[in-house]
Amino acid sequence: MIRWIIFIVFIFFVDFYAFQSIKTIAKNKVLYIFYWLFSIVVLGNVIYQLVTYSNSKGMPQATMFAFGLMILSVVPKVIAILVLFGEDVFRVIKGFSSCFSKSKSTPFFVDRREFVSKIALGLAAVPFVSIIYGMARGKYNYQVINHTLYFDDLPLAFDGFKITHISDIHSGSFDDAEKIAHGIDLINQQKSDVILFTGDIVNNTADEMDLWIPYFKKLEAKHGKFSVLGNHDYGEYARWKTSEEKALNFQAIKDIHPKIGFNLLLNQSIYLEKGNEKIALIGVENWGTRFKKAGDLQLASSKVAKGDFKILMSHDPSHWNAEVKLDAKNYHLTLSGHTHGMQFGIEIPGVKWSPVQYIYEQWAGIYSNVGRYINVNRGFGFLAFPGRVGIWPEITVITLKKK
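The chain above was modelled as a monomer; its predicted structure follows.
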């Protein structure tokens, strides 16, 4: 209850503070009423949806949309507040200086300057428009990102071997079959040797994937399709009547993978063979510093020799720093997902930023350590916020090359 009160007080504080810029510019009571009505309806809808979601097994589309509207309402106001706060600091300083003024008519608190309010609203319009685009189009704005990685010890037969890496499908969030079909086509257009999926096929329940199985069955790769589990695949974030119900759902989620032609690796390894040479593909269950630790790296790689060329699939990139980099078996390439790049950030030449970077050291793209690499995929789907702003859904194509 205390958290709810703090949340509501914070939202009303943001609404009230941002309202000052509108009040300075527009003297229109109809606009005032619309502003507060919209803010109250958005807040009320979020509270209602969260209470409803707490009693359900999945995250309904309506809940995600309500959360999206809340972000659309709050984020631009926070941007406006940053400008208004600077203005208020100026007004306070001016007020104190007026105490020492010889002019008795100087007010302690000068009026808010109209041009500052216009600047605040102008800056707030940028995230407002961006969030609308992110919810309407950005969540399906698939990007094919290519990387070429060079290794001294790559078997010669695998020189030029192409991997398509996808992650975080989150099928329970999908709402546009045509866009999903387009994403599947993009993956197939890469004509990669192998497709590797690094977990979170659903949000919570196996039936979320029912509608989308025919689409993902169309994925093609010459040397096969392989997958691992993510933290959402264990049903940890849903309310279950019994432990048996949860176990049945978990088994149903594992059963999805062969239905779409994926070989699910559960702390296991296999060899990909080409000519007379081979590379090891290792898949661990979810292992994260903040989330479920079902992965067993030692068990998964127990049948792999230290000298083998190794590709590791591990959903959570925090596993790389915590265990993988320290392991004597020397994993050449680790593939992860999980972060989604927080579905919000800035990626332009020279600038790569997202709030998630303050939580995960490796959060999007390729990172290296003494000649070994991790790729953190930004995710194929989306979760909670029904959109993406600046961090687009990703299809990664990695080409292995021998130095």
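The domain at 139-402 is CATH 3.60.21.10 (Purple Acid Phosphatase; chain A, domain 2).
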